[in-house]
Amino acid sequence: MDKVGLFIKCFNSPRLYQICKDGLCVDYYATQQTVMEKWTNMVFDGYSWLITIVTYLSPFIVYNAYKHGLEGPVAIGKFSITPLISLYVVAFILRGSSRCITPAYREFLESHTESISSNSNIIRQSFLNKYDFDFSEWNVDMKATAGVTPDSDIHGEYYVPFILKPFYYFMATWIAKPLAYPGATYPINAIMRKHLSAGRASHMLMRRNMTRAKLETVDNNHIDSVFVDNRAKDEDGTPIEGPGQTLVITCEGNAAYYEVGAFEYPLKEGYSTLGWNHPGFSYSTGIPYGTADGNAIEAVYEYATKELGFAPKDIAVYGWSIGGFSASYLANAHPDIGNVIIDASFDDILPLAIPRMPEWLGSVTKNCCRKYFNLHNVALLPKYQGPIRLIRRNGDEIISTNGHASGNRGNQLLMAVLQSRYPVLFKDQEVENMAMDWLDQTSPVPRRHSVPGYDLEFCKEQLSKSTGPPDMELGTGLTRDEKLILAYYLFSKHLTDCEGGHNNPLPRKYFKMPWKKSDDLTS
């Protein structure tokens, strides 16, 4: 690139965060960025904060203008518009000039220009493994061809009169989104920026087998994703059996990111892992409405199967907290995936949302959730009949309606899963009542004591005759005590109790693939 072209490019180029080479990551901001560039970046960050604040205050500004006239807002605009524009232009020029005189940034920019126009994945990934920068200034690596279908179970039932649509959109954008998905708001993204950059640098430094990709959904959102390939092969290219042959797709919580979230759990166990950020989180674009999040996980799944080469049976999906919705949707839409792990999640967002809103907004809350944030896991997950593990945090303070295990909304999700798989057993009133008593407990010991005569061999014998899941006949002809024995066996295989609260990191011993019937029948 000639000097004139480089000079012009400096004025409209991405922000640089980390430079990683020779086994070391250097924080560009702290070590090589000039004082002038630091100052101008602070100016641009200030503008972003100003726009965010004005956006959230706009309803009050409009109301005040309606009550008292436009004189105040017009006067403020006249007083501030010229200084703000002037400061922006000066900062823009100074930042571009500063970047041009910084050798490390010029080297980055030349490499960025070459890589972004290259058709070679090797060149592109080599660049992405060396630099952490503003990922919005990167080309799309894959465009998804599939998304949420009109007949999907993801769609909720609601009643929103046409004249009230702007009001519901306001409620969803200004109120519901910050509460349901705070990670999609500018303040949280800005506060987390340095931590996320450090997390990405850690992955870049520690893992040479990492691939970062930008995926485009069918609704034109861009999803930031990262893949670590732990598939092992022998000298002739034959895959070596091991956990790396299984891909775990991780779905993060409502204020979590792959850079600092659950992405690490399967990696520590040797699995190949694909992490991604919800729409609006970090460098993923859009708003995480239910359908947008569904389209995002569809793009991730398509990338996993078509670009990374994993068969559906070799894919597991792990969803923590609100990420349980993304995982439930994927399991519902693609029932041939191999395994599903749901950690600290819930059956439906409504029982959690309504108590947190004023009583007189109950109807609005319901319709808003069903239209925009229909996180209705119990309508999705039970239709998946493959291996499932539900992890329940015994001290979960977020998804419990009473602060105790008995109020954990994951209980209803577990019961719905078991009833869809073994209806004769778990829709029996006595068994259902006993199962709810088991869910009041946080230890398997008192549960086991409530099942006298527990016989593992009897359970294996019954399962050997079963064709499921689902098995619509399992439990037919059994006595009450036999039903309880078999129900407890299946209950304990699907639920894992974990100590700690909602936001505690998951201890390694709890990240395991779900139970399969064949595990016990062959042992």
Domain unit count: 3
Mean pLDDT: 91
Span between N and C termini?
65 Å
Largest sheet: 9 strands, mixed
Could you tell me the number of beta strands? 14
Low-confidence segments, given as residue ranges, are none
Radius of gyration: 26 Å
Number of H- or I-type helical stretches: 20
What is the percentage of strand-forming residues?
A: 5-15%
| Shape estimate | globular
**Helical content band:** 40-55%
What's the short story on this structure?
By secondary structure, this protein is α/β, with parallel strands linked by helices. It has helices at 3-9, 28-31, 35-68, 71-100, 103-116, 121-128, 165-180, 186-206, 264-268, 290-307, 323-333, 350-353, 362-372, 410-421, 423-426, 429-440, 444-449, 456-464, 480-494, 517-521; strands spanning 16-21, 24-27, 131-133, 142-143, 210-216, 222-228, 232-233, 239-240, 247-251, 272-276, 315-320, 339-343, 388-393, 495-498. The protein folds into three domains: 3-137, no CATH class; 140-144 and 157-309 and 339-377, no CATH class; 380-523, no CATH class.
Describe the protein:
Strands 4-5-6-10-9-11-12-13-14 form a nine-stranded mixed β-sheet. Strands 2-1-3 form a three-stranded antiparallel β-sheet. A two-stranded antiparallel ribbon has the order 7-8. It folds into three domains: 135 residues, no CATH class; 197 residues, no CATH class; 144 residues, no CATH class. The radius of gyration is 26 Å and the shape is globular. It starts with a helix and ends with a helix. It has 20 helices and 14 strands. The chain has 523 residues and is of the alpha/beta class.
